[in-house]
Write a structure and sequence with these properties.
Strand content: under 5%
Structural class: mainly alpha
Radius of gyration: 32 Å
Number of helices: 3
Largest sheet: none
Shape: rod-shaped
């Protein structure tokens, strides 16, 4: 059997491995490794961007809950205290309203904390992909 006169071209346009020099092979390896690392970095960026977005939403919810709680708490507390003052001493009315707002604040805190705990800063897809590659 004779060898074909025209070698099969490789995908990158370089000669097949049997006809390539060591320098060409090392150059192609370095180029492929560089491309692979660039792709892995892009995957890591995408994953981190997604996780930062989740963290931002959780932080925004906590901040919004705090501000809304402050404004609502001031106005509603005064209104409720004056309404309860009609049926009981002022200090008891103020104590009941304070305890109610403490319970509401605790619930908002727990919800925000739960949202923050869902954030995973490690780019798991990238780590798994690198483990498979190397």
């Amino acid at each position: 059997m004779t060898r074909p006169t025209t070698p099969y071209p490789s995908e990158s346009g370089t000669p097949p491995v049997g006809d390539a020099s060591v320098g060409q092979l090392i150059g192609e390896l370095a180029s492929d490794l560089s491309t692979l690392l660039r792709q892995e970095m892009e995957l890591a960026k995408a994953e981190l961007k997604q996780e930062v977005s989740k963290a931002g939403k959780g932080a925004g919810l906590l901040g919004g809950a705090g501000y809304a709680g402050l404004m609502l708490g001031i106005c509603a507390s005064l209104t409720l205290i004056f309404l309860l003052d009609l049926a009981m001493p002022l200090w008891i009315a103020a104590l009941l309203v304070t305890l109610a707002w403490a319970a509401a604040g605790f619930v908002m805190f727990q919800s925000g904390r739960k949202q923050i705990k869902t954030v995973h800063p490690t780019p798991t897809q990238t780590v798994d992909s690198i483990k498979e590659t190397f």
